[in-house]
Amino acid sequence: MGLIYGGVLAAGVGLVAWTGYRGGQLSLGEDHLTEHMPGRMRQALGLSREDPSLASAGVNTFYGARVEPIFEARCVTCHGPTKHKANLRSTITGL
User: Fold this and answer.
1) Residue 90 reports pLDDT greater than 80
2) How many CB atoms lie within 10 A of CB 68?
Protein backbone atom coordinates (compact mmCIF):
# COMPACT_ATOMS: atom_id res chain seq x y z
CA MET A 1 0.00 0.00 0.00
CA GLY A 2 2.84 2.43 0.86
CA LEU A 3 4.64 1.70 -2.41
CA ILE A 4 1.52 2.51 -4.45
CA TYR A 5 0.95 5.73 -2.49
CA GLY A 6 4.57 6.79 -3.01
CA GLY A 7 4.36 6.13 -6.75
CA VAL A 8 1.11 8.04 -7.13
CA LEU A 9 2.46 10.90 -5.04
CA ALA A 10 5.66 11.10 -7.13
CA ALA A 11 3.62 11.02 -10.36
CA GLY A 12 1.33 13.78 -9.04
CA VAL A 13 4.25 16.00 -8.05
CA GLY A 14 5.88 15.36 -11.42
CA LEU A 15 2.69 16.29 -13.29
CA VAL A 16 2.23 19.49 -11.29
CA ALA A 17 5.84 20.51 -11.94
CA TRP A 18 5.60 19.72 -15.66
CA THR A 19 2.27 21.54 -16.18
CA GLY A 20 3.57 24.53 -14.22
CA TYR A 21 6.67 24.69 -16.40
CA ARG A 22 4.62 24.42 -19.60
CA GLY A 23 2.21 27.09 -18.36
CA GLY A 24 5.15 29.39 -17.69
CA GLN A 25 6.40 28.81 -21.22
CA LEU A 26 3.01 29.73 -22.65
CA SER A 27 2.49 32.85 -20.61
CA LEU A 28 6.04 34.14 -20.09
CA GLY A 29 8.02 32.73 -23.03
CA GLU A 30 10.45 29.91 -23.71
CA ASP A 31 13.23 31.36 -21.54
CA HIS A 32 11.13 32.13 -18.46
CA LEU A 33 13.46 30.16 -16.18
CA THR A 34 16.73 31.62 -17.48
CA GLU A 35 15.70 35.15 -18.47
CA HIS A 36 17.04 36.84 -15.32
CA MET A 37 19.71 34.27 -14.46
CA PRO A 38 23.00 35.76 -13.15
CA GLY A 39 25.93 35.73 -15.59
CA ARG A 40 28.11 33.37 -13.56
CA MET A 41 25.36 30.79 -13.22
CA ARG A 42 24.61 31.12 -16.94
CA GLN A 43 28.29 30.43 -17.73
CA ALA A 44 28.43 27.49 -15.32
CA LEU A 45 25.44 25.89 -17.05
CA GLY A 46 26.82 26.64 -20.51
CA LEU A 47 23.99 28.92 -21.60
CA SER A 48 24.62 31.69 -24.08
CA ARG A 49 23.57 35.29 -23.48
CA GLU A 50 22.04 35.50 -26.95
CA ASP A 51 18.29 35.00 -27.15
CA PRO A 52 17.64 32.05 -29.51
CA SER A 53 14.22 33.44 -30.42
CA LEU A 54 15.96 36.43 -32.04
CA ALA A 55 17.63 34.33 -34.71
CA SER A 56 16.70 35.35 -38.25
CA ALA A 57 14.60 32.89 -40.19
CA GLY A 58 16.36 33.60 -43.48
CA VAL A 59 14.82 34.40 -46.84
CA ASN A 60 14.81 30.74 -47.91
CA THR A 61 12.04 29.86 -45.43
CA PHE A 62 8.36 30.63 -45.78
CA TYR A 63 8.45 32.75 -42.62
CA GLY A 64 11.48 34.75 -43.77
CA ALA A 65 10.14 35.33 -47.27
CA ARG A 66 6.44 35.97 -46.55
CA VAL A 67 5.69 36.65 -42.89
CA GLU A 68 8.72 38.58 -41.57
CA PRO A 69 8.36 41.41 -44.14
CA ILE A 70 4.76 41.95 -43.01
CA PHE A 71 5.87 42.22 -39.37
CA GLU A 72 8.65 44.61 -40.35
CA ALA A 73 6.26 46.84 -42.29
CA ARG A 74 3.28 46.85 -39.93
CA CYS A 75 4.23 45.78 -36.41
CA VAL A 76 7.77 46.77 -35.45
CA THR A 77 7.07 50.51 -35.23
CA CYS A 78 4.84 49.97 -32.19
CA HIS A 79 6.15 46.61 -30.93
CA GLY A 80 9.89 46.80 -31.62
CA PRO A 81 12.95 46.57 -29.41
CA THR A 82 12.52 50.10 -28.04
CA LYS A 83 8.74 50.46 -27.91
CA HIS A 84 6.50 47.81 -26.33
CA LYS A 85 2.91 48.92 -26.94
CA ALA A 86 0.46 46.79 -24.93
CA ASN A 87 3.50 45.03 -23.43
CA LEU A 88 4.13 43.20 -26.75
CA ARG A 89 7.55 43.17 -28.40
CA SER A 90 8.65 41.98 -31.82
CA THR A 91 11.72 39.71 -31.76
CA ILE A 92 12.76 40.25 -35.37
CA THR A 93 16.54 40.69 -35.61
CA GLY A 94 18.13 43.71 -37.18
CA LEU A 95 15.35 46.04 -36.13
Assistant:
1) no
2) 21
